[in-house]
Design brief:
This protein is of the alpha/beta class. The protein is built from 14 helices and 14 strands. A 7-stranded mixed beta sheet has the order 1-7-6-5-4-2-3, with helices on both faces. The chain has a 5-stranded mixed beta sheet with strand order 8-9-12-11-10, covered by helices on one side. α7 links the parallel β4 and β5 (181-185). α3 (64-77) runs parallel beside α10 (247-257). The structure holds pyridoxal-5'-phosphate. Its EC number is 4.4.1.2.
Length: 396
């Protein structure tokens, strides 16, 4: 399928539902605000309990509103099935725990989301699960980190501070040849731009909180993959830890999903325009954006992704303190964590705050849905208003 056809299919998939008698033809999935589901007879009750993955018995296990969203997300990600969680971290930790036990070893990319790394390298150590963090840009690094007891390779491509990629098809092939399960955090690209299951990865996780929601009003997560791997997560981690998505959140996220392809195309265009502008700025050393041809892994990105989203970073030799002043003076960029919403955001990190870079500052930008001309003007004006002194640049 060509990319254009794929995109058109995504628009239809997110906008169209067959009329469903069970919901009285309701054009939107109703919010099934019910903890339990009752039965006419004991026979029907027992039958439903035996098929708890598809039938509705109790909302900690399976709720119709949540199930609707799971099916929609699975369709977009080309997964057999999905399970939605209360947050991205609930989905990530459930997916990891489902695939390891005491004595096992995990290979994890060293630039993965901070709390994920902390869970893998710190928390799981308490249970006798070992791990190695590797620079995932080279397949050789991943291959040499594999031990006989390695059961899981955890990927995140691109990473969300330096935007480093892993070769997903090659990682999947390597893992399969050793009987190792692969998980990828696909929050940055979303299924609109990257479908890792098609490249052989076993499980995809998302922080729905970011682009899939896109409204900065929900915290949510999802795991997608084969029925075999997902039903194990649904029966164990989902049911036992209880970090479920509520029907209300599912209905809210379902509304957001309608505009996902539309929003992603806008984030892509705007972020590329801002990134290209940043390349020529005197205070910018390097722009980390996988769809800029200057990115060291540009070719790989073009091969495994059909587009790019709105989050990227730039490195600067301007001291951290000055970049913080610049960020504080921006009018259209808010200072805040997270990303993926309608609003543009900025964070300024001192060099080496968890990231390997020689620059003095690492500035991360999320390009929202505002006018791209206004965003560029805001950054240019703010920089121009800060004048040079002997110490470097300072506020005037
Ligand atoms: C935010 C984030 C998460 C965690 O998601 P929550 O919904 O906040 O739990 C995981 N991975 C990445 C890349 C993220 O940015």
């Amino acid at each position: 399928m060509t990319d254009k056809n794929e995109r058109e299919w995504q628009y239809t998939s997110t906008s169209h539902d067959a009329v469903d008698d069970r919901h009285h033809g309701s054009i939107n999935i109703p919010i099934y605000q019910s903890s339990l589901f009752a039965f006419e007879s004991y026979d029907k009750f027992e039958e439903a309990t035996r098929n708890s993955r598809i039938s509705h018995v109790y909302s900690r296990g399976n709720n119709p509103t949540v199930r609707y969203l799971e099916d929609k997300l699975a369709e977009l990600e080309r997964a057999e099935t999905a399970k939605c969680f209360a947050s991205g971290m609930a989905a990530i930790t459930a997916a990891i725990l489902s695939n390891v036990k005491t004595g096992d070893h995990i290979v994890c990319v060293d630039q993965a989301y901070g709390p994920t790394r902390e869970f893998v390298t710190g928390y799981l150590k308490r249970f006798g699960i070992e791990s190695s963090l590797v620079d995932g840009r080279s397949l050789d690094n991943i291959r040499s980190a594999i031990r006989p007891e390695t059961k899981l390779i955890y990927l995140e491509s691109p990473t969300s501070m330096l935007f480093q990629l892993q070769d997903l098809a090659a990682c999947a092939e390597l893992a399969r040849s050793r009987g190792i399960v692969t998980i990828i955090d696909n929050s940055w690209a979303t299924p609109v731009f990257q479908r890792p299951l098609e490249l052989g990865i076993d499980l995809v996780v998302h922080s729905i909180t970011k682009y899939i929601s896109g409204q900065s009003d929900s915290v949510a997560g999802v795991v997608l993959g084969s029925e075999r791997l997902i039903s194990r997560i649904a029966e164990d981690e989902y049911m036992l830890f209880g970090g479920i998505m509520t029907a209300y959140t599912a209905a809210q996220v379902t509304r957001c999903l309608r505009t996902l392809p539309l929003r992603m195309e806008r984030h892509e265009r705007s972020a590329l325009a801002v990134a290209a502008h940043m390349v020529s700025q005197s205070y910018v050393l390097r722009v980390n954006h996988p769809a800029l041809s200057s990115h060291p892994q540009y070719a790989l990105g073009q091969q495994q992704m059909s587009g790019s989203s709105g989050l990227f970073s730039f490195e600067s030799d301007v001291p951290h303190e000055i970049m913080r002043q610049w960020a504080s003076r921006l009018r259209l960029f808010k200072i805040g964590v997270s990303w993926g919403g309608f609003e543009s955001l900025v964070t300024v990190n001192p060099a080496n705050a968890g990231c390997v870079t020689e620059a003095r500052s690492l500035v991360r930008l999320h390009i929202g849905l505002e006018s791209v001309d206004d965003l560029i003007l805001d950054m240019d004006r703010t920089w121009a208003a800060m004048s040079l002194t002997d110490e470097g640049v300072s506020a005037d």
